[in-house]
Amino acid sequence: MCGIIGYTGKRQAAPILLDGLKMLEYRGYDSSGIAVSENGGISMTKAKGRLDNLVKLTDGGKSARGTMGIGHTRWATHGEPSDVNSHPHIGEKGNFALVHNGIIENYLDIRAFLCAKGFTFRSQTDTEAVVQLLEYYYKGDVKEAIAKTLNKLRGSYALGILTRFDPDTFYAVRKDSPLVIGLGDGENFIASDMPAVLKYTHDFILPEDGDIAVISPTKVELFNRNGETVEHKPFKVDWDVESAEKGGFPHFMLKEIHEQPKALEQTLLPRFDGYSVKSDGIEFSKEYLGALKKIFIVACGSSYHAAMVGKYFIERNCRISTEVDLASEFRYRSPVLDENTLTVVISQSGETADTIAAMRDAKAHCSRVLAIVNVVGSTIAREADDVLYTRAGPEIAVATTKGYTTQVATLMLLGLFIADATKSMSKALYEKYVDELKALPAAVQRVLDENVEALQKLAYDYFAFDKTFFIGRGMDYALALEGALKLKEISYIHAESYAAGELKHGTISLIEKGSPVIACATGEELFEKTLSNIKEVRSRGASVIALVKEGREKTMGAEAQHVVSLPALSDEMMPCVAAAALQLFAYYVAAAKSCDIDKPRNLAKAVTVE
Ligand code: M6R
């Protein structure tokens, strides 16, 4: 969704703002703009469409000379994508300009109130109401005007605010929308997320909801709405600059697919001490686990697919009833939550609005909340009772890859941790899983080393189809859902994912001669059953690509046109191993169709609206 950047220092601000916006492109946007403090005023440039339009309009930033500014990529919510609706928005007196990420729910009331006071509005956005309210409340004290404005707002926001009164100081606030403050040497930044400014700093402060940050080149001060100083300890991130750059790959997605072995190593290896799983400080007392009646795993999109794998693993091995929910559905179905339930929320970004809402609801109903999150210091990480970081490093492509596989691996760790504490698993099985998790990064590496060419070729054979089917049973069904989502979101090919056994209850009527079916048959336990389902679609003319464990090629080869053979680990490990192959397939199909792979249409990396 929208991206925010802000800079104050000694350098020309505009090129830094444009550079930061480039790094935020992946969040999804349809227009962009910058505002720079210049000659006692604020100069603004905005452009609909790609960031390149803004770059051209500003001559790569050269046209604006000031050393402080704010920038924005807008993902339209209120009002069409257009120059006038793009951010920054400037107040009618020209005193304030601001950029906003989030939604102001009561903006119509604010507009009506201000119109009655004689203000006129230029855009259709909710954001303009905020900047005009600032103008209305400004009586000589900027902080006071901001505090009064915030008191009137309902909704979510991260704001970067320039004023005409401070030549080198700008302001930032947030509530339920992401914003970090980057600390440089004689320069400071704000950004919607850390990769946007990693090139300049690794030191950050995370403002809390409601804080007002006053940011000059040499100082960052934080105040609450009563004007009292608040302190937040800065922290360092160890992500390297390269991790936020393409590093020679044509797309971030391909780079991130290939980063999975390393990411999985970071997720898994430091968490083992011999055969015991380190809990990152999470403690489940004997009493808590003894009384635990149910686990809910709640997430959206691919994180939800990871949750499905986690459910199978935990339920089977820990013998605790585990339900999986889409975050957007969870709280509206009134789940039975209390202190004897554990709610596990999963989110790569830690900023997904539906998941945040579900987490808050679970907490409000006394359920302990454990978050599995990638982005350090994100809203979910901060608000959950416990956090297990996936340690995947920055993920830039909208389609998640290493984000997903590290979530699955982290869920396995959680399962093992609970199983160890409750002694629900035999020692032999437990140790087998630990050994296999340690071997998982190498197994994924093998998939990447051995399958690129074949999958690329398959992608060329299949890219012209307009619909595909993904089928599987058990964990392979969860994998099918993820494989289908990957394909549809980046290649725009319709992909229907189905539990293989369900096909005959309706969907099989769609199968005709040549229908592409991607069959996930990586699990041994249900292999024969899936094979029967594959025969069913084959006999109706489907063209089948099947994913199997090594050793099953021959049996499957008799049915499927193409067999992708994968390193043979336990069934439970296969969704991670096989995901890498499905990601490559989706990637090469989208590449063959010349799609905008890292920034698919209509999508955003972090979905910060419900
Ligand atoms: O950041 P989150 O894990 O909470 O994001 C959830 C979904 O929006 C995300 O997984 C989405 O489905 C991806 N585009 C899938 O590739």
Layout: helices, strands, pairs:
Elements: E1 3-8, H1 13-24, E2 31-38, E3 41-48, H2 51-57, E4 68-74, E5 89-90, E6 96-104, H3 107-116, H4 127-137, H5 142-152, E7 155-163, E8 170-175, E9 180-183, E10 188-191, E11 203-205, E12 212-215, E13 220-223, E14 229-230, E15 235-236, H6 252-258, H7 260-268, E16 272-273, E17 276-277, H8 286-291, E18 294-299, H9 301-318, E19 322-326, H10 327-330, E20 341-347, H11 353-364, E21 368-373, H12 379-383, E22 386-389, H13 402-422, H14 427-462, E23 467-472, H15 475-491, E24 494-499, E25 516-521, H16 527-538, E26 543-549, H17 553-557, E27 562-566, H18 574-592
Parallel strand pairs: 18-19, 18-20, 20-21, 21-22, 23-24, 23-25, 25-26, 26-27
Antiparallel strand pairs: 1-4, 1-10, 2-3, 2-4, 5-6, 6-7, 7-8, 8-12, 9-10, 9-11, 11-15, 12-13, 13-14, 16-17
Helix pairs in contact: 3-4, 4-5, 7-13, 7-14, 9-13, 9-15, 13-14, 13-18, 14-18, 15-18
The structure holds 5-amino-5-deoxy-1-O-phosphono-D-mannitol.
Q: Which tags fit this structure?
A:
18 helices, single chain, binds 5-amino-5-deoxy-1-O-phosphono-D-mannitol, 610 residues, alpha/beta, 8-stranded antiparallel beta sheet, 7-stranded antiparallel beta sheet, 23% strand
